[in-house]
Amino acid sequence: AILSVLPIYFFILIGFTAKKIFTDEIDERTLVLISLYFFQPILIFWGLTKSPIDYEFMATPIIYLIIVLFVLIILLLINKMIFKERKDQSIYLAVALVGNTGNLGIPLGIALFGIESVPYTSIINIANIFFIYIFSVYFFARENFSLKDALLSIIKIPGIWFAFLALLVNYNGIEIGKNIYSALEMGAYTSMVIQLLIFGMYLSKVKIKNMSWYAPLHISFVKHIFLPFIGLFFILNFTDLNAMVASILIMELMVPLAVNNVNLAALYNCKPYEVTASILVSSTLFVFLLYFYIQIIEYFIK
Question: What pTM, to 2 d.p., does this model score?
Fold first, then answer.
């Protein structure tokens, strides 16, 4: 099972190496814009039209958000005891719960569960995007940015609109032609590769010798231990999802921190390099924890 996810890290390594070799000749922001405004909407539309809408399809993102928001309430109560500086508190609240549900979650779901996982990983990614552009944006910029403006920013994200369109097409049973579907599938897989390349490019900028380990380790503890534990407890005791869907949901709670955290931290001047360091630590820990995560997931499949 671990070998099946190696292609994911292969493309991350390509992005990392390309940025190291060509430095200023490659602008990762260009790839970010192409991915965000062109290929991610295709990926979302493709993913949300692959399977008919049912109870578990709609319940999965709701359960995901309930778990994440519950943990956020706990972090709001304890963040001032862990960090003294307000910016560090903001980073902790904004970053720790935002997983790489798009960059890694969708391809990892395909590697572990097959193509049948795409509708569920896609709609969980939409839930994650809502969390990012409401709560994370607010925490990153709460000194000079209103929650109302954060809500309005969602309108500018094309993936949201394509998600609604895909759900409308799916709900009404509108069939998609074979040739159109093939084009959507090509765009979806292209999106996955581009996102993994972007992830590697951002990691190439981190200078390990200048890293501060305090915040990244606290954030990684929340992301890789506390959040999955709360999620596992909640799913086992308060849901009736089938084994595969429950396993997909747990996997999405376990994935490392999202690259989009760096974009927002840089946009609002909230220690972007410390956020990047947190992503590096989280991603590295994920490699070592992946075997144990897979054992937990396989337990649910059985």
Answer: 0.84
